[in-house]
Write a structure and sequence with these properties.
Elements: H1 4-17, H2 30-37, H3 41-53, E1 57-58, E2 66-67, E3 74-76, E4 87-91, E5 95-96, H4 99-105, E6 112-121, E7 127-135, E8 144-153, H5 156-162, E9 169-178, E10 184-193, E11 197-199
Parallel strand pairs: 3-11
Antiparallel strand pairs: 1-2, 4-6, 5-6, 6-7, 7-10, 8-9, 9-10
Length: 201
């Protein structure tokens, strides 16, 4: 027998596909949906987790959820180019170099680094990419960069910012900027949800 939350999720997915709610519309409250389907509110919560993991709804679990806008697929070609749309700085707190950052920047582990975290929005105002940058001292100009491409599972903070669920797979581009002598002057992690991006390097 199908689990109740999967049945609820399937019915809501069908209604979204049929256009009962348009992208951006709020869904009924959890209590209202629980009453409608004759289930416990926890069952509705599990159904919403399932719909979020499929990219059909977005928003915070504690608030009213909305029908998600279909993700716009973008192709990243120039990972060192500026972002053409709105950005928001979410953190500027200094930190200590982890072993990985120390290796990327050519410094000793534990050295104090400057840090900047930026959320890059798409033209509709939704989060499209997260960029965390680290450097020592003041920012210096660069003449080239190197990229390492990998895949990570979103942590709670990243998932919250991107409107996705924890452990959703995302591309991670570790970009290190170099000066004319080939020394690292800055390193950054670019986090790009796999349902919104393709990479062409």
């Amino acid at each position: 027998m199908e689990a109740a939350h999967r049945r609820v999720a399937a019915d809501l997915a069908d209604q979204i596909a049929a256009g009962l709610w348009a992208p951006g519309d709020q869904l009924p409250s959890r209590a209202s949906l629980a009453h409608h389907y004759g289930v416990h509110e926890q069952t509705v919560r599990l159904a919403m987790v399932l719909l979020r993991s499929r990219g059909l709804i977005e928003g915070e679990q504690r608030n009213r959820l909305r029908v998600a806008h279909p993700p716009v697929m973008r192709t990243l070609i120039r990972p060192d180019a500026g972002w053409p749309y709105q950005t928001e700085v979410t953190d500027r707190s200094p930190c200590r170099a982890t072993d990985e950052l120390a290796d990327r920047l050519g410094v000793q582990p534990g050295v104090r680094l400057q840090r900047e975290a930026i959320e890059c929005m798409d033209p509709g105002g939704r989060s499209a990419m997260l960029v965390s940058s680290w450097w020592r001292g003041r920012r210096r100009p660069h003449t080239s960069y190197v990229i390492e491409l990998g895949v990570v599972a979103l942590d709670a903070g990243q998932a919250h910012a991107l409107g996705l669920t924890v452990d959703t797979p995302a591309y991670r581009l570790a970009r290190t900027r170099l000066d004319a002598a080939g020394r690292a002057v800055e390193s950054a992690d670019l986090i790009l949800p796999m349902d919104r991006w393709t990479i062409r390097l």
